[in-house]
């Protein structure tokens, strides 16, 4: 007898072919399953194992795609065939799965050929009639749910893991910063003709635009309430400067256009704040460990520069360290100069806290930990992402930074670096005492006495120093004579050797 293993979205089915002789000709099999009545006469449902939930169906489907035996299928075949000690032959549509079943369970399997393919085609066409109690509508819903789950599994898709949103958001954030800066500078240049002194008082671009939109002409400064925009000191300073301003007058139409530009600056700033909050939330969901280590803005720029989180995870730590400085790197390699120590990581808070000489070391340590954090974010299978790895890495880099800073402050600079200060030892010889007898003024014209006194003073000084000097002066002469003598002896030995070799040659001849 032949048994047919058929996989459905609802579970595994085992059909028994009632007449094996009808399988002799593959071309006739289709006629045996032309109608539900014909199908019921030729095949019968022997066993059915229903899936508990969609997760079980997905696990079985993925195993079947890879040609492996799932746990549910193994238990089903073990119970229905092996434990029942049936000697029937099993027909399986997948050749890899058939080979695995034959090797692991020891079940006799039909070779995959035209007969098996036609048999499966006939059962698939009359599946609703062969499996009682399973309507076609329910089967279609199960197939739809399983297909969506299988597609998500293949694409590794998760709505919370869409790093494309981060790439677009950080790009838009940079564009907004440029636009805001351009518009704000234009407002200051435009309104500066009317009230030039205010640009020196108000530094913040958004506050400047809000004041222009609220105040209008500088003559309205005294009656305009700016307490919601500025502190009391700056508000008073602006009002005093408006009274003595040297700016020119502008028309109502000019002010209308200036106010329209100010409104653009205010709205763009509000949208930028909203976009930054959105970017922060997305980074916390997609790359929490990287965000905890380098911050959401630097992390988002790293992902955008690499293209995706998965691509960034494939980069080694050395590449992450100089990511964003490719032009400087290739320029340095071409000129055979020192390569850059950091790229986008330069803007990370931990690198910014380090001193100039320690920035490279901290960037290297930060890149190593960031590489690990990125891989955890990209490849972790946890349903709820955690920032534990990133927080631990940040603690390590902060400790490394403190150690480097402490080591740098404890150094001694100059010639005394690395030398220990010796202990003071009292000299063994007593110092020379002053001779008061020598302290006198010689009489004028008494040359002999002056000469005698000089001789006495010379006698008081030690005579070892001149001898030592003379000895050092004579030393080169002695060295020269010894060198000449050695050269002479060497020359004589060479001459003797040459004479001896000549005599030996003559004797041989």
UniProtKB/TrEMBL annotation:
InterPro entries: Nop56/Nop58 (IPR045056), NOP58/56_N (IPR012974), Nop_C (IPR042239), Nop_dom (IPR002687), Nop_dom_sf (IPR036070), NOSIC (IPR012976). Its main location: nucleus. Keywords: Nucleus, Ribonucleoprotein, Ribosome biogenesis. It is found in: Nucleus, Nucleolus. PROSITE patterns: NOP. One of its GO terms (biological process) is ribosome biogenesis. Gene3D superfamilies: 1.10.287.4070, Nop domain. GO terms for molecular function: snoRNA binding. Residues 409-509 are annotated as: Disordered. Residues 485-503 have a biased composition (Basic residues). It comes from the Eukaryota. GO terms for cellular component: box C/D methylation guide snoRNP complex; small-subunit processome. Residues 286-406 form the Nop domain. Required for pre-18S rRNA processing. May bind microtubules. PANTHER family: NUCLEOLAR PROTEIN 5 NUCLEOLAR PROTEIN NOP5 NOP58, NUCLEOLAR PROTEIN 58. Belongs to the NOP5/NOP56 family. This is Nucleolar protein 58. It comes from Allomyces macrogynus (strain ATCC 38327). The lineage of its organism: Eukaryota, Fungi, Fungi incertae sedis, Blastocladiomycota, Blastocladiomycetes.
